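hiii so um. not sure if this is the right channel but i have a protein structure encoded as tokens and i wanna go backwards to a sequence. like what aa goes where. can anyone help
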């Protein structure tokens, strides 16, 4: 289990995270939602120990560091691959670095996305690069797969098919945390929704309970974020 206790992060005078407390067990698919600048990416980078922060984050009671970081993987829009080498080169490198690397899963996902194995990653399109980043993260053999806007540059058909593939290949011990604005698209694939607003975790929701309430996830999110539908009419009226 990953546990966050009183985690806060500042960039100079700007508060990015404020007193966040959370438990993330194995075996869940979690959606991380919030507006631009809410703190989602900072939240994920703190989980990965990429940033210094106040508070404590532990994995099964131990600090996340070089000894256990391989139990987490991160698919980021900043990209963590080597652009000057091929996909096949990455595969060989990952097999050497990660003893639990899942070669069968990697090969299947490469075929699914129709990614060229012998082409340098720097020559991939942006959509292909994002797909490859996800392939590496899911195939690393990590117990916690963290994905920050993983589907940027991908069309809706690729995204929907990928959700189905992802749900099919995950084991009961794997946890996936997905940060995305595509709330309605992934609502049927997640177990839990964590809502961040201005650096604070404002709610932690079980999707099964949302469905039993008769509301949709997007309706709940709009309520939590005080969404004002009237601002559209106001803007249109001002333009006219």
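sure thing!! here u go:
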């Amino acid at each position: 289990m990953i546990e966050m206790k009183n985690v806060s992060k500042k960039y100079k005078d700007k508060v990015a995270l404020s007193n966040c407390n959370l438990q993330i067990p194995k075996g869940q698919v979690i959606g991380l939602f919030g507006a631009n600048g809410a703190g989602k990416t900072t939240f994920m980078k703190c989980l990965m120990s990429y940033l210094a922060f106040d508070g404590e984050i532990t994995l099964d009671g131990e600090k996340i560091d070089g000894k256990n970081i391989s139990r987490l993987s991160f698919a980021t829009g900043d990209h963590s691959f080597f652009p000057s080498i091929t996909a096949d080169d990455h595969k060989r490198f990952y097999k050497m670095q990660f003893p639990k690397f899942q070669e069968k899963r990697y090969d299947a996902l490469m075929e699914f996305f129709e990614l060229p194995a012998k082409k340098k990653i720097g020559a991939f399109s942006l959509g292909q690069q994002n797909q490859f980043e996800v392939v590496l993260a899911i195939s690393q053999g990590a117990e916690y797969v963290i994905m920050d806007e993983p589907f940027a540059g991908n069309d809706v058909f690729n995204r929907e098919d990928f959700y189905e593939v992802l749900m099919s290949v995950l084991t009961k011990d794997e946890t996936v945390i997905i940060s995305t604005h595509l709330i309605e698209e992934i609502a049927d694939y997640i177990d839990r929704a964590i809502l961040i607003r201005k650096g604070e975790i404002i709610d932690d929701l079980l999707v099964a309970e949302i469905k039993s309430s008769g509301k949709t996830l997007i309706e709940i999110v709009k309520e939590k974020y005080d969404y004002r539908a009237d601002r559209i009419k106001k803007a249109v009226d001002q333009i006219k």
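oh and The chain has one domain: 2-225.
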